[in-house]
């Protein structure tokens, strides 16, 4: 059974500096990297529309004005887009805090370099059926596409560490999360803060649901990831 998402908000975290991409993103944000004839962000927007999501908030950083200039209010792309700008690097959670006044009470987040194969409707319904503060989508990666960083037990995240690998980490954060706006109270104002810093207390309080996805993700945070995604998109067209 599918659940309508037409009034649900998704936040694209697109403020990163793309340091791993070198010349590919030297004079443009990562989301504007051309993938088979159109910016990566356009591929994301088309994915959202296919999933029935039409309200997008984009958190922008360095060179973010290029994104707003290209996509505007989204009307030309059949989607409603609003923007939040940060005037200094704030990290993924800091960007959410900066956009707090624009956030719904419950919202999706996705990283600006991720392309996923998630049934957003099912994940949304699963989250709504559980009285928790947040949900992390996870994939049993076994270090295949990137370093695994997550341990789950049952329907909860038991451990998450993006920087330190542990032997029991077989899962990876898939790229999409759901949050209640209540989490904003734990994020400092105008400070660099990552979602990993938000996940830690949520895990300790057993407030972070795990939602497993069976199909791999793509990412454009590396040149290898870009080439893999280009091949995937090229095979679809």
What order do the SSEs take from the amino end to the carboxyl end, as H and E? EEEHEHEHEEHEEEEHEEH
Largest sheet descriptor? 7 strands, mixed
| Strand line-up of the largest beta sheet | 5-4-1-6-11-8-12
Number of helices: 6
What coarse outline follows from CA principal-axis ratios?
globular
Q: Layout of SSEs?
A:
Blueprint: E1 9-14, E2 34-35, E3 38-39, H1 40-50, E4 55-60, H2 65-71, E5 80-85, H3 91-98, E6 106-111, E7 114-115, H4 120-128, E8 134-140, E9 150-153, E10 156-160, E11 171-180, H5 195-204, E12 208-212, E13 218-219, H6 223-236
Parallel strand pairs: 1-4, 1-6, 4-5, 8-12
Antiparallel strand pairs: 2-3, 6-11, 7-13, 8-11, 9-10
Top keywords for this entry?
alpha/beta, globular, 7-stranded mixed β-sheet, two-stranded antiparallel ribbon, 237 residues
Short description:
The protein has helices at 40-50, 65-71, 91-98, 120-128, 195-204, 223-236, and strands spanning 9-14, 34-35, 38-39, 55-60, 80-85, 106-111, 114-115, 134-140, 150-153, 156-160, 171-180, 208-212, 218-219.
């Amino acid at each position: 059974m599918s659940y309508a998402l037409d009034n649900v908000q998704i936040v694209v975290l697109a403020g990163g500096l793309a340091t791993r991409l070198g010349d590919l993103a030297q004079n443009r944000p990562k989301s504007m990297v051309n993938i088979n004839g159109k910016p990566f962000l356009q591929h994301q927007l088309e994915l959202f529309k296919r999933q029935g999501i039409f309200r997008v908030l984009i958190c922008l950083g360095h060179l973010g004005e290029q994104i707003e200039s290209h996509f505007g209010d989204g009307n030309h792309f059949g989607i409603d887009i609003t923007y939040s700008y940060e005037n200094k690097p704030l990290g993924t959670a800091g960007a959410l805090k900066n956009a707090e006044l624009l956030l719904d009470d419950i919202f999706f987040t996705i990283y600006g370099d991720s392309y996923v194969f998630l049934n957003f409707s099912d994940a949304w319904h699963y989250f709504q059926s559980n009285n928790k503060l947040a949900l992390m989508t996870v994939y049993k990666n076994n270090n295949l596409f990137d370093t695994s960083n997550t341990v789950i037990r049952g329907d909860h995240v038991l451990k998450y560490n993006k920087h330190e690998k542990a032997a029991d980490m077989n899962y990876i954060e898939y790229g999409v999360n759901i949050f209640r706006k209540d989490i904003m109270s734990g994020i400092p104002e105008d400070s660099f803060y990552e979602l990993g810093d938000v996940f830690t207390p949520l895990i300790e309080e057993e407030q972070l649901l795990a939602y497993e996805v069976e199909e791999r993700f793509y990412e454009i945070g590396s040149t290898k990831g870009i080439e893999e995604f280009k091949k995937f998109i090229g095979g679809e067209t």
